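Annotated sample (chain length 80).
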Amino acid sequence: GAALLDLEEPWKVIARTPEPILEPEEEYERIGDVPNVVFPEGVVVIGGELLVFYGAADKVCCVASVRLNELVNYLLVQRE
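Output written by the structure step:
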C-alpha cells in the first residue's frame, strides 16, 4: 500500500490505502523463480510522476508509475 505521513511528526500516519497498490498481475510477475511475488525496491519523482522500481517473481526488474498528485488525492479521500 501507500501511506501519507505528517511532515513534522513522520511517525504519524495521516492516511493509507486500504488495499495493496502493487500486486502480481502480469505473466512475468506470476511466473519465475518465486512465483506471484512483487516487491518495491525504490521510488523517484520526475516531473510530478512517481516511479516505483520493483522486482517481480525474483526474476525481473520493473517500473510502475502514477501521478504523484493523483496518489496524494486518493490518500486524502481515504482519510475521510
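Annotation: The chain is about 20% helix and 40% strand.
Annotation: The chain has a mean pLDDT of 95.
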